[in-house]
Amino acid sequence: MKRYKYTTYLAGPIEHVSAKEMKTWRQELTEKLVCSDLLVYDPVVQESFKVGKPSGEQVEYIKGLKQAGHWNKFVEEMQKIW
Fold first, then answer.
1. 49-62 burial, b for 16+ CB within 10 Å, e for fewer?
2. What is the pLDDT of residues 40-75, one digit of tens each?
3. pTM score
């Protein structure tokens, strides 16, 4: 397991931006911050790994569950990314 001296977290909107906008700035920052001692944690990428689909699709799915009142399924899907 690789150990890092420093970590940082990319925080930004997911729900109200296009997939292109969401990826562009995150990718740009990650590339500019490349350093062997720094781990850049990108929650969008990590959430996509956890649920097995693009983050934007998961956001829409979860919002639909909430709006339709499917609370048990909503909580179950939220647990996957928490």
1. eebeeebbebbeeb
2. 888 878 888 888 888 778 888 888 999 999 999 999
3. 0.58
